[in-house]
Fold these 2 entries.
Entry 1:
Amino acid sequence: MTLATAILLTVITAATPLLIAAIGELVVERSGVLNLGVEGMMIMGAATGVATAIVTGSSALGVLAAIGAGMALAALFALLTLGLAANQVASGLALTIFGLGLSGVVGAPFVGMQREGIGKIALPLLSDIPVIGPILFRQDPFVYASLALVAGVAWFLWRTKAGLTLRACGENPVSAHALGYPVLRIRLYAVLFGGACAGLAGAYLSLVLTPFWTAGMTAGRGWIALAIVVFASWLPLRAMLGAYLFGGLIILQLHAQTAGVAVPSQLLAALPYLITILALTLIMAARRGAGGVAPAGLGQPFTPDR
Amino acid sequence: MVLERRADAGPWALILSPLLAVALTLASSVAIFWFLGQDPWRALNVYFLMPVSDFWGIQEVAVKATPLVLIAVGLALCFRSNNWNIGAEGQFLIGAICGGGIAVWTHGWGGPWVLPLMLMCGALGGALYALIPAVLKVKLRVNEILVSLMLVYVAEFLLDWLVRGPWRDPFGFNMPQTVTFARDATLPVLFDGGRMNLGTVIALVVVAVAAVVMARTLKGFEIRLVGEAPRAARFAGFSDTRLTITVFAVSGALAGLAGVMEAAGTVRQLLPGFSPGYGFTAIIVAFLGRLNPVGCLIAGVFIAITFIGGENAQIILRLPRDMTLVFQGLLLFYILACDTLILYRLRPSPRRAAA
């Protein structure tokens, strides 16, 4: 394996959790709900995932538990914002604080317990192709799942009636309601899907990327996923592009640190966050005058009046 | 079930809702303690009563409540007017860095002018840092939530670099920390032997000023109106651009002031992990205080008690420190839910012919 291939492989591993969480949040926001609790759901996924995997000895059960934990937190968020029409920004923040705390409690007994990460699956023959073989066809199951998610969500949102209905709930919930669509139920499904994705992304962190638990291990990845959704103009394929760009950045920064570039390591570590701000600024500057691309009903609570 | 706005939600509801939220959080914590195999009453005692059982403890509560209240008062202004400054933690750290930098720079030759200069620089630094998301929001409509939050991480790395690099105490055995501030660079304590300092008085003054501004001035009315009825505010000729800049600058200045006072009054040096997350906890304080300055004061004291209770519980009950975060998150959930349940009522869906 050449150095370039090796670097590309690490870029994909860094990008995958961002991509999974971002694609979930993209569906949530398309339905008109802003869930700022991605970081909280993600870290709960990471904690429950690794805890379950250690207790049961099964990575698959760990992944399922992580998805369940993400969905459970998402259900709590849905209860507040959909059931009680509470403020979505504040509820999302509460979810993040709660998730960060609870993950610390759940993960506490498992600190420092290392286990073998989930391995990679090599597709026969195809993975032997030079250069692109290892990159495309020798990956862990999460990478394949993330790509399937992107394709599936893109197809669902633009090629199915259900997807169109979901987008209608995000653009104009009042009209969607008037047409007889159950806006709140559709939003509930979207929020639960987002929770499942965030939990899955968390499982990737604690079961593949660094196969053990450390408190606060998401380190703002949930927030970067939220930024990717904005950066991607709420389009799945662009979210994929955004996630890989950020993944590349994270890896570049790590390589620069080990190569001993004459810059303080803290500056390099701060780069992904600075670049996020820069990327958001550039994309908004480019969009100036082009009108809003965000779902028109994003963040507005909706209560059917009758 | 449908939500229906109550016609009779009087002013009592505004006080009842946070009280109900606190009661529900206490009930949930009893259940959690029981689940964790702790004696719930002993645990509640450790969390809520032990911190205020003597004068020394009350002073400690004041020390913790001071930054929380200061930051929350600023955030309340922001949230009221629909400006989501989530990065108070970063503005707090930048305030500590700007003020603490003066203390490090003047170490050994300063005079009585050092402390006022530190406080000014801290507030100014916090305000400028908060203006980054504010300006990006009004100029380019960049999401202020994400920008202010990302800047928290940046501030953490900046502090880390400073105390490990240029500002490290040369006689500090290579520890990542600055010199201990000189007398001229520290806030005087109010009572001998305690840690409560002048900062608490400053925080109380800020609460009083903010309460008057919100209730009695045009600016206060503008802030409330923009948040509650943005269209009406525009017709009235209020500029939401200018308001966004103002509330971000004020909340950043207050967070920065809280930061420099924490450095000059409580910690007396800069070191990584200098803040126990005051900037994030203050978000909960602001909501628990109903986005009202006096409410923030009461809520800040309450949350400060649980902060110290959490530290006690870690030592006495061996509960993880993150338990405090769980309770804080729960509390915010309950506040938000109670607000709805008190302003609205749940009614079974009317059985009508399908529309």
Entry 2:
Amino acid sequence: MDDGVAVDPPSTPVPPAEKGQADVSVVITSASGADGISVVALVEGIAEDDGLCTLTADSSGIEVVASGPGHGSVSSVSCADGLEIPLDQLHSGDWSVTVSYESDAYAGVSAAVSVEVA
Amino acid sequence: MRRHRGIAAAVAVVAMLAAVVVGEASAANAARGTDFVPGYIVSDAEFFDSSAMTSAQIQEFLQRRVPTCRPDLSTGPSDPIVCLKDYRSTTVTKAAGLCQAIEGGRSLSAAELIDVVARACGISQEVLLVTLQKETSLVTLNAPSQWRYQRAMGYACPDTGPGGSAQCSADYEGFFNQVYFAARQYRNYVSNPQFFNFRAGQTSQIQLHNNASRNCGTRSVAIVNAATAALYNYTPYVPNAASLNAGYGSGDTCSTYGNRNFYLFYGDWFGLPNRPSDGSGVGNLWLALGGENGWLGAPRSPEYSGLRDGGTWQQFTGGMAHWSAASGAWATRGSIASAWNATGSENGPLGFPTSNEHTGFRDGGTWQQFQRGKIHWSNATGAQWTLDGSGVQGLWARTGWENGALGYPATQEYGGLRNGGVWQRFQGGTIHWSAASGAHWTKSNSSIQNAWAAQGWENGVLGYPTSDELGGLRGAGAWQQFQGGMVHWSAATGAWVTTGSIASTWGASGSENGPLGYPTSNANTGFRDGGSWQQFQGGKIHWSNASGANWTLDGSGVQGLWARTGWENGPLGYPTTQEYGGLREGGVWQRFQGGTVHWSATSGAHWTKAGSSIQNAWAARGWENGALGYPTTDEQPVTGGTEQRFQGGTIRWTAATNSVQVTLR
């Protein structure tokens, strides 16, 4: 059915694994150290509401973690809810942050992003 | 129904000639991907307008998109062809939540169903139609397979089966569910922005493509409003330049199309999704300037309110538009817009614009009117402002604006000078204004301006100018009047300052036309009794408080004698008159504090002491006109007194008797 309009292919499906969890792509779409650490990430190719997102921040051997529920969108899951670390748990300087996602069927972790805490 | 550019006319035509098929928007009015603004794809006003269309209007619209459906193209009984204009579905009961409640079990046409959902969820019917098209092309296909209805909005159907068939979650499957959950999700993004990736007022790194192996990277997008954030949450990719440059076609391996196609279909069907509000001052201005095809170009922001005087403004790709009730709606762009922003925009000294930019002035220059002033731009000077009603602008206007000797302004007007004065530099000179002196200008880097500057500008002895530079003097000279004096210039002499009594005496002598000619120095100060003197082409003017200002002629016998006696430090002191001629045999005389010098060609220059017995005796005999004639010596000491010789004799003064004896030859 070619009407000359280029369209996106249907969102890349991530089939559930036969056993255990299938890998999913997690991408950080914004990260700020302006008032504590606040991070938002996108889990691509799945739409479900039962996963858990975890923000991990590392600096000088110190690790701080925050978690929150993933919220299903149209063809992705948003990791945004609760992924914040208040300033009183942080020291100033550069922090390496990642976001991981885990549900019954899927798991994935983002690449690390550097965030400067003032 | 609001009026829609593009379809308003089409609806009218259909009403008259129902059989006529109205085509797509003409090419000239087609939306262009190159106008796509990533941070502001669709306005909130458009997106959340749930009265954008009635179900009848939707039906009419669908029939125009697919005049002839092609059930004959069915692949078999398992996949009957039903076009969207003919499609019917049954509602499912939905409790109130993010959307208002929807009653189940009603068999509705697709158009009715779209309208019901749009009104329940507060989302525009147009948005739902464009979303349908962008996801599954259902609006325009004349032979859609059934699977497209099952996953009509692409909602939560991540699995694809053979031939593109969808395996949607049963909760979301089917046309009604798809339209409902998509609209509900749009509403969810607005009601719960903290749960989702993209939010109004935040800058996000949005991927170009979902295939990480292509390393397409991200684009930083400052999302302006909730509706645009909703589009990115729905389809979390931003089109790249290749996609935006391809019309509806294909770009490159890093191109995505969902949000581009939303913009293009919306623009072609309903007018630009981010266009200004119909009927607003800014919107009317934008239309009058040619809409997205004019120099303002595509909108980059909504129309913001809250400016001074109830004003509004909107950002476009080509500039800004500002409106207030008092000033009307006008556009600014480029250097003039930047200069206006630097003044504080409408809160600054200029206020709101009251014209668009006027072009075609000297050297390709432009200018624009604001409530309280003007901004003038040329390539050489950049954009600079002048204040209406200011003395500076008034002078510039009188000299012919940029076409006059001053040319374009090269700075803004600056205040803070002595006595509340202001100044502004132009290409040809600098205007200074103060209440007492008015506005006058000095020529850039002219000798006169430099001479003034060397005195400390308005802070120096000259104060502010009280005339412009005036020419026409002897030898093509020029001069300028200041509060505290004058500066005179000629090519032969350069520019020098005259002030006070010296200036008055020079004026009385005939200024540059008199015996002294032009000044060739400034006043030299710090002499006896606080005296000063100044050099001119033909002589010197000497001043002291006791003697006033008087001149002596260079090369004259009188000045020569005075010089030999030690100038003002000698017995003669300062001159108290000028040199006067008209005496017998072409003689001249000049009085000094200590005596009077007389000169004639035959006698030379000699002086008699002021009030001395000898001078009195000479005077009693008729000065140079008497038998004694001119002095031929100064007064000399002799035994018992003094003596002075004259052409016709000698006068001797005896100290013991304080008497004089005149001996004629």
